[in-house]
Amino acid sequence: MQLTELSKIREPVKLDDLPVEQMRELQGALAKLGYPVGDLDGLVGPRTRNAWSEFLIDESQGDPTIVDTAMIGVLQQHMAKLAKPSNHDFSTRDGTIAAIIEECKKQGLGLRNQIAYVLATTQHETANSFQPVKEAYYLRDKAEAYRKTLKYYPYYGRGYVQLTWKKNYETYGHLLGVDLVNNPDLALQPEVALFVIVHGFKVGAFTGRPITKYIDAWHTDFVNARRCINGVDRAQHIAELATNFAKTLP
Q1: Are 103 and 158 within one domain?
Q2: What average pLDDT does the chain have?
Q3: pTM to 2 decimal places
Q4: Per-residue pLDDT tens over the stretch 228-249
Q5: Which of 43, 64, 71, 113 has its C-alpha lying 20 to 30 A from 134's C-alpha?
Q6: Left if phi > 0, otherwise alpha if psi is -120 to 50, otherwise beta: which for 127?
Q7: Is residue 192 within 8 Å of 178, Cβ to Cβ?
Q8: How far apart are the first and last CA of the chain?
């Protein structure tokens, strides 16, 4: 994600005075880093203000009412880290596991038990394949069957974990620079699916509950971490998978 609009800033600008396109770009960058900005609407609201303030505090930067070139530079550095290409082999189980581990660390979910739970969820949601899947795969890609069966067609679940509803496709399409709205099957691309599952866990995109609510440096609750994805459905089973993964991670 290139900050093309924000890079036009040469002198410090008040946050409230940013044009819509620059504000929308700022919101997108903060959201991609996991800060809760709310809608990417280009409007300055309390959530955007708080997200910008949090970012500056985390980076030991200055005035949260101001946007300047130094702050934009730090933001761009973080964007570059996320965009750094990898050479993982997504066609194999081990390759996908390696990719998930790296992506978790990139996005700040670096604790062993957090990574273990993301891996366990991937294993469960993909029926042990570690390949992006479609929701209700038993319908065998029959468009009419999907249309009749799934009320949010064509924005039904895809990926390592189920990305559903048009709004979520719009959000992740914007964050990744991919047209997921007009071509939702792009969510099946491993690189897209990888970002979505890790970012979704980090910010609580799936149910409103981030993984840090259940797993942090002080406690681990593998059973209730399922609430990040789908209530308590198969919670004990996935907890057991996570426990096994945790034993193999450094």
Answers
A1: yes
A2: 92
A3: 0.91
A4: 999 999 999 999 999 999 999 9
A5: 113
A6: left
A7: yes
A8: 31
Structure tokens at 39: 């809608």
Indicate whether 88 belongs to any domain: no
Q: Where does residue 217 rank: exposed (0-12), middle (13-18), buried (19+ CB within 10 A)?
A: exposed
Query: Which CATH number belongs to the domain containing residue 183 in this structure?
Result: 1.10.530.10
Domain that holds residue 200: 93-248
Residue 143 is inside which H or E element, if any? helix 143-149
Cα gap 190→89, rounded to integer Å: 10
* pLDDT at residue number 18: 95
> Among the three residues 29, 51, 83, which one is the final residue of a domain in this structure?
83
* 112-145 pLDDT, tens digit each: 999 999 999 999 999 999 999 988 766 655 666 6
**241 CB-near residues (< 8 Å, 6+ apart):** 119, 120, 123, 124
Structure-token pair, residue 229: 């994805």
What is the Cα–Cα distance from 68 to 60, expressed in whole angstroms? 14
What is the structure's pLDDT at 52?
A: 96
How distant is the alpha carbon of residue 42 from its chain centre?
A: 20
| Cβ contact 102:86 at 8 Å | yes
Residue type, 2: Q
> The tokens of 37 are what?
């900005």
Are residues 141 and 213 part of one domain? yes
What is the token pair recorded at 72?
Answer: 């934009």
Verify that 184 and 71 share a domain, yes or no. no
Res 150: pLDDT: 73
Please indicate whether residue 38 or residue 181 has the higher confidence score (pLDDT).
181
